[in-house]
Design brief:
Layout: H1 2-13, H2 15-53, E1 58-66, H3 68-75, E2 80-86, E3 88-94, E4 98-105, E5 115-119, E6 127-131, H4 132-138, E7 145-147, E8 149-150, H5 158-163, E9 185-193, E10 218-222, E11 232-239, H6 250-331, H7 338-345, H8 353-366, H9 368-405, E12 411-415, H10 420-461, H11 463-471, H12 476-515, H13 529-555, H14 559-563, H15 580-583, H16 588-599, H17 601-639, E13 644-647, H18 653-663, E14 666-681, E15 696-705, H19 713-716, E16 722-724, E17 730-732, E18 745-748, H20 749-755, E19 762-766, E20 772-781, E21 788-792, H21 793-800, E22 824-829, H22 833-843, E23 851-854, H23 855-861, H24 865-896, H25 898-906, H26 911-942, H27 944-947, H28 961-987, H29 991-994
Parallel strand pairs: 4-10, 6-9, 15-21, 18-20
Antiparallel strand pairs: 1-11, 1-12, 2-11, 3-4, 3-8, 5-9, 7-9, 13-22, 13-23, 14-15, 14-19, 14-22, 16-17, 18-21, 19-20
Helix pairs in contact: 2-10, 2-12, 2-13, 2-24, 3-6, 6-7, 6-8, 6-9, 8-9, 10-13, 10-17, 10-24, 12-13, 12-24, 16-26, 17-23, 17-24, 17-26, 17-28, 24-28, 26-28
């Protein structure tokens, strides 16, 4: 019992050490669990929301729309749980200018159901539900009315609608199906959240512009009532077993990928061919119908002409007969036979055909009326013959052109990663979670160091008592348990408080920031027992290991040796003493300070190491902030030298270039072809990739450059080769030393870093047509935002048009192979940044322009608010850790030197002089720690490129001089603050009691 009371008394006396260990554990556990818990809560809540609203696992789009046959084929794919055919239409309306919206039919199969926020769901024709963004921008409310105008060509069927022939040709998009049509007189009855886009329009930050993929301004949701048309714009699928997996886990991606591979493998190819054949058959049928209709019209016209000619001939024959009879009567004799001759004149004489034809021509020529009538009949017949020949030629031409006028039908099979809202949320949370996995390591190391320092001093102070207990027969384990239980209790209390902060405080802060960016219904804080317990256990093991080490170091001695005071350290010279010119000029107190600093190596290492670690954390946090702040400027000002990128549909490429050229704003330009594709690295580990065993896929922007203008690419984009370095760093080559050629592709650094690709690697490229081919990476180009892959025109043709392409069944045949259409333009503009932004916005209003992007606008609008919030949290926690570390080290320093401080007081030192004597050493050690921590923080910051491995982003770490100053000043300020707590302790030292002999 006395042993226990003495142990409790010892614990109470060492309350400062207890608080120090508990605080360090609290901060470490909070960092370890807090960021993880916040991301986990967000992941789980959005996953539940997606499952409740039936967010599609797979979406299938087609350039020619989808028919009932396509939907039926998708339903037959193995592991497909449900297929929903969807109809949509793009419309425009007036709202402070021309705005666009997508009329989206609310599916009846429970897929992609909007989440009701206010009002009710639409049920009747003409009723719609709108998003909160529309309500905010328009000022309308539930019950308001709206009139919309359908686009002349909708987003999904415009190409096909316009590529058919005229009235006698085909309509590619529809064939025998009708395109979707929605009511135009609308009434708002509800406000909903689109599960495909969780961006918060009322928050301080909507989704950053560099990840925005919306093609229209708003989305309106309408019921099936009132929607006409049997052609579907898309098909959405749910995969069996996918709902049981977390949508953000790799297991979910693997489950969905199995289905997408099956669709890509057989269904896609077969249905693309079948759909094109349907369109060809429909076109041939329309041409045949047009020929039959024309033949009928021509037959009717010929019948009319023939009837008129017959009537004309009858009239002429009648006149011929009359003239022939009159001539016969005049030739008869006059006299007795006069009566008989008169009777004979009543009968028409018989004329041969030649005489009759001659008389007809004579009669017609003699009569102007008959001549005009004959000419009209001949002219009508001639015109009819010409029309028949022209129509037949036109139909023959259209028959010949039909095959080429209907392009190959293309399917696009996409998963949730293609949704801008989903991928943006996932990349944000993944980046924050990666930081949460990296920073606790530093906190753990500092916690072990400080615990070792504190417990070693605690055991050393009790060495005589330890010797006494051991001499009395107590076991060494029982004696060591006094300190082990002390450290364990401090860890458990600090860890428990850390779990509260980690699963409540930090997640609440992160989720407030997240909810400023995204809407996440049903969000709640959850506790993870396993992760929380392991978090505490990790720090318990570290601190107890340090305590055990301290106990073992002391208890190796005999009880007699332990009960005697520890012999003072033998005096020794320090290195500075050997530098006589410097040493001789240092005062007495300065020499004492120098000896105290360098003779006690453990205290030097612990103090400098602890301060350096805290300073490095602060620098690292500020480095993230500086890096993110400069990403947009570096990408859109330095790397992209062009001011404007304009993209059009293939059919509008010529009109787009004409429009831009006629505006007179372009000073120089480069025509390119831009396609959305994928870059994949196989996980064979055979050396084709930059890292053995690496695998993955990245969405890319494939940029094909005309062969004659390969050298002009360097004028539009800064080409700088990069190479991988140690610890995630990279080396950047000389500007202009990289050239695009026909031997390979140039891959953006952001994609190469994520997939482990380097120069010489083999990658699989997928172009906009879905054709895959294996390409060689000739170089990796410096690129921070987006994933561009540059390819020459010749190498593009070699990859995707040759018979050697791996996916030849999807490749164009040699007879169908055509020259590339340059559907995009990179241009340099005149004028200010504002005028360039305005010009880009005006271009998007043109019907020939699909997308116009101003680099000036992108540079100014790029921001990463969530990362800034996390940086602030990390810097605050690092500051708190620095304060605890300095407090622990300062108190340990004082406890070790109580007799020394008492001696100084006996010698006549005033309290202020004692303060200065002790604090000067701590300030020098702090300065040394800061000097070491600043470059260490930069080194750790350089490793962030490995931790922050985000799609389409490469963090080129940069630390501004101001950040170094802030980190140094903050650490020194914490050191000065600690002095305010240490000085009263120095004042309370009693020289008499402190100098009593231990014997």
């Amino acid at each position: 019992m006395a042993f226990v009371k003495d142990m409790l008394r010892m614990w109470a006396h060492s309350w400062k050490r207890f608080i120090s260990i508990a605080m360090i554990t609290l901060l470490g556990v909070a960092v370890l669990t807090g960021i993880y818990a916040g991301c986990r809560d967000a992941f789980r809540s959005t996953d539940r929301f997606f499952d409740a609203q039936g967010l599609h696992d797979v979406q299938v789009l087609s350039t020619a729309g989808l028919s009932n046959g396509d939907i039926a084929a998708l339903r037959k794919v193995r592991s497909v749980a449900k297929v929903q055919a969807e109809r949509s239409q793009e419309v425009t309306f007036d709202l402070d200018g021309r705005k666009s919206a997508t009329m989206q039919e609310i599916g009846t199969d429970g897929i992609d159901q909007p989440y009701l926020q206010d009002g009710r769901m639409p049920k009747k024709a003409g009723e719609i539900a709108v998003t909160r963004k529309f309500i905010r921008d328009s000022g309308k409310r539930i019950g308001s009315r709206l009139t919309v105008t359908p686009e002349s060509a909708s987003s999904d069927t415009s190409d096909a609608d316009n590529s058919g022939t005229d009235n006698s040709g085909t309509n590619e998009a529809s064939g025998t199906d009708e395109a979707p049509s929605f009511p135009t007189k609308l009434t708002i009855v509800g406000v909903v959240l689109d599960p495909q886009n969780l961006s918060n329009p009322d928050g301080y930050s909507a989704m950053t512009s560099f990840r925005s993929t919306a093609t229209t301004d708003y989305t309106f949701f309408a019921p099936s009532d009132g929607v006409t048309g049997t052609l579907y714009t898309s098909a959405t699928l749910l995969v069996k077993g996918a709902a049981a997996e977390s949508t953000f886990d790799e297991s979910y991606e693997n489950t969905v990928k199995q289905v997408t591979d099956r669709i890509d493998g057989t269904v896609k190819t077969d249905r693309q061919k079948a759909r094109r054949q349907e369109l060809l058959d429909a076109g041939n049928k329309k041409i045949a119908d047009a020929r039959a209709e024309a033949d009928k019209k021509f037959a009717d016209a010929q019948s009319q002409i023939d009837a008129n000619r017959q009537q004309f001939n009858q009239q002429v024959d009648q006149i011929v007969s009359m003239q022939a009879g009159a001539a016969a009567a005049g030739a008869a004799t006059n006299g007795a036979n006069a009566g008989a001759a008169a009777g004979a004149g009543a009968t028409t004489p018989q004329l041969d055909e030649t005489t009759r034809e001659t008389m007809r021509e004579t009669i017609i020529a003699a009569s102007p009326e008959l001549t005009q009538a004959k000419q009209q009949l001949d002219q009508a017949q001639s015109q009819l013959n010409e029309q028949k020949a022209s129509t037949e030629h036109t139909l023959k031409t259209k028959e010949n052109e039909l095959k080429t006028s209907i392009p190959q039908v293309r399917w696009y099979v996409q998963d949730r990663q293609s949704l801008g809202g989903f991928s943006a949320l996932k990349s944000d949370l993944d980046s924050i979670q990666s930081l949460g996995n990296a920073f606790p390591i530093v906190f753990l190391l500092v916690a072990v160091m400080m615990s070792l320092t504190a417990m070693a001093r605690m055991v050393e102070e009790d060495r005589s008592l330890i010797g006494t207990y051991v001499g009395l027969g107590y076991g060494r384990l029982a004696v060591a348990s006094r300190y082990l239980l002390f450290a364990l209790l401090a860890c458990l209390i600090g860890g428990g408080l850390g779990l509260i902060a980690g699963f409540l405080g930090i997640p609440a802060f992160l989720l407030v920031v997240l909810q400023g960016m995204y809407v996440m219904p049903g969000l709640r804080l959850e506790y993870d027992w396993l992760y929380g317990s392991l978090g505490i256990a990790l720090f318990v093991v570290g601190v107890l290991a340090a305590t055990i080490y301290a106990c073992v170091q002391e208890m190796r001695q005999t009880p007699a040796a332990l009960m005697r005071p520890k012999a003072p350290r033998a005096g020794s010279r320090i290195l500075l003493e050997r530098i006589r010119p410097v040493w001789n000029r240092i005062g007495f107190l300065g020499k004492v300070t120098a000896r105290n600093i360098f003779r006690f190596k453990s205290r030097l290492i612990m103090t400098v190491g602890g301060v350096a670690g805290c300073t490095a954390l602060i620098v690292c946090g500020l480095a993230i902030n500086d890096t993110v702040a400069d990403l947009g400027i570096k990408q859109y000002r330095d790397i992209y030298q062009y001011d404007l990128m304009v993209v059009s549909d293939d059919s509008d490429a010529s009109a787009m270039r004409t429009k831009v050229a006629s505006d007179g704003r372009v000073t120089s330009s480069l025509d390119v072809r831009i396609e959305s594709g994928d870059l994949t690295v196989a996980g064979s580990g055979g050396g084709d990739s930059g890292k053995a065993g690496s695998s993955g896929s990245e969405s890319i922007q494939l940029v094909a450059v005309p062969e004659k203008h390969l050298s002009d690419l360097g004028e539009m984009v800064t080409l700088q080769p990069v190479s991988s370095g140690i610890l995630g760093t990279s080396g950047v080559g000389k500007t202009g030393s990289l050239k695009l050629d026909d031997d390979g592709v140039i891959v953006a650094q952001s994609a190469a870093s994520a997939l482990g690709v380097k120069a010489g690697s083999k990658v699989r490229l997928t172009n906009g047509d879905g054709v895959q081919a294996t390409a060689k990476v000739s170089a990796v180009n410096r690129n921070l935002i987006g994933s561009d892959v540059y390819v020459s025109e010749t190498y593009y043709a070699k990859l995707f048009d040759s018979k050697d392409a791996k996916n030849t069944k999807n490749s164009k045949s040699s007879e169908d192979s055509e020259a590339l259409t340059w559907n995009a333009m990179l241009a340099k503009l005149s004028g200010s940044d504002t005028s360039q932004t305005d010009y880009a916005e005006s271009l998007e209003e043109d019907s020939s322009v699909m997308k116009a992007v101003s680099c000036a606008h992108m540079a100014d609008s790029f921001k990463f608010d969530l990362m800034g919030a996390v940086v602030a949290l990390i810097v605050a926690l690092a500051g708190g850790l620095a304060l605890v570390v300095l407090f622990t080290l300062a108190n340990t320093n004082v406890s070790e030197r109580v007799r020394e401080m008492a001696t100084l007081k006996v010698l006549g030192f005033f309290d202020r002089e004692v303060h200065h004597y002790v604090n000067r050493e701590m300030m020098i050690l702090t300065v040394m720690g800061v000097i070491l921590g600043l470059p260490l923080g930069r080194l750790v910051g350089g490793m962030l490129t490995m931790a922050l491995n985000m799609p389409s982003l490469y963090f080129e770490v940069e630390v501004k001089p101001l950040s170094y100053v802030i980190a140094a000043v903050a650490t020194m300020a914490f050191a000065l603050l600690v002095q305010l707590f240490v000085n009263p302790v120095l004042d309370r030292i009693d020289p008499i009691s402190s100098l009593k002999s231990v014997e």
